[in-house]
Amino acid sequence: MKRLAVLFLAATLPALAAADQRAYAFTYQPRTAPRGALDVELYATFTDPAGAAPGERSWRHQVELEYGITDRWDVSLYNVFRRPYGGELEYEAFKVRSRYRLTEPGVSVIDAVAYLEVQQSVVDERATKIEEKLLLARRLCERGAGFVTVAFTVVVLGGMGSFAGALVGGLLIGVVESLCGLLLGESLGQIGIFVIFIAVLLFKPQGLFGARA
After folding, report:
1. What is the rounded distance in angstroms from the CA atom of residue 186 to the CA atom of residue 196?
2. How many CB atoms are located within 10 Å of the residue 180 CB?
3. For each of the chain's 213 residues, which pLDDT tens digit applies?
4. Domain extents for the chain?
């Protein structure tokens, strides 16, 4: 019986889900690798501009080798490949990235990291690209991620852009979190928030007071 229930949910939940195309920004974290740390990372990015022809879609693959020279300074080497949609994989560029931490994390008012990246392309007209920036950040509290989760769930529950929805959503989330914490313990108090978040996305994605797009 349990297997039938799982199969039924697996078959019906995808029909209730919806997705749209959104643009996401790249973020740079103000951190450096520890001294002596050696990491290999793989990145894959699919580009599909709105209204693009098949030839304008492409995959971009990056292979990164990162090494911490000191606790403040690290260097990364990249090999970059690209593959047009339906085409063959080709070598695109070689990159060198270096970061230097100017302050100790959490000690100064602002955490600062100097960032430099040099890319040498073998296919683009602009062969050499240099990107330099100063990364600034500040950790406000250790529980920041938990607060963001609660706040985001409140907005989704009440409806995007609805002030009344945010008030009602905040009250409901507060009651649910308190009850779950009382019944399940403080460490599991946020389980109810995630259950509400998933239920709203499945059955009422516009929120309680939000207008249907």
Report:
1. 18
2. 19
3. 545 454 544 555 455 545 455 555 666 777 889 999 999 999 888 887 776 676 678 889 999 999 999 999 999 999 999 988 778 889 999 999 999 999 887 777 788 899 999 999 998 777 899 999 998 887 665 555 566 667 777 777 777 777 777 788 888 878 887 887 777 776 666 777 778 778 877 887 777 776 655
4. 38-137, 140-213
